[in-house]
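The authors assume throughout that readers already know how a fold can be written as discrete tokens. For illustration, here is how one protein appears when written out as sequence plus structure tokens:
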Amino acid sequence: MSATDTKTDADQATEKKGGGKKKLVIIVLLVAVLGGAGYWFFLKPSSGAAPAPKPGAVLALDPIQVNLDDGHYLSIGIALQLTAGAGEETDGSKALDAVIDLYSGRSVAELLKPKARIELKKELKAKLSELYDEEVMDVYLTQFVAQ
């Protein structure tokens, strides 16, 4: 037997310990991968989108007159689609103030264009959602007469 063929007991013990360390590393990696996969499938983080609010009562407000450009005026009525969690005694004065701010001073020609009316309604909806702390989910135009 040559010197390379014979291994001492110390060399064989070292090889066994090295193999044990490799197995331990593989087991730890396997547990980490399985743990991550389990977290992803069972406790999957939400996509960040809040659930859509449920509709509640519709609050119809009395029509108001808004001064337009060149001595014209707009008679406009709105209704607020409240969320289910909104209070029953929601005050419409903030909504009417927002309508006056948004529509005052505009021309009749501008208000008669369907695209402009749709854009103004979107602006009003966004403003009302902000003013009422997300308790207003939509706004309806119940009256719209310009003279």
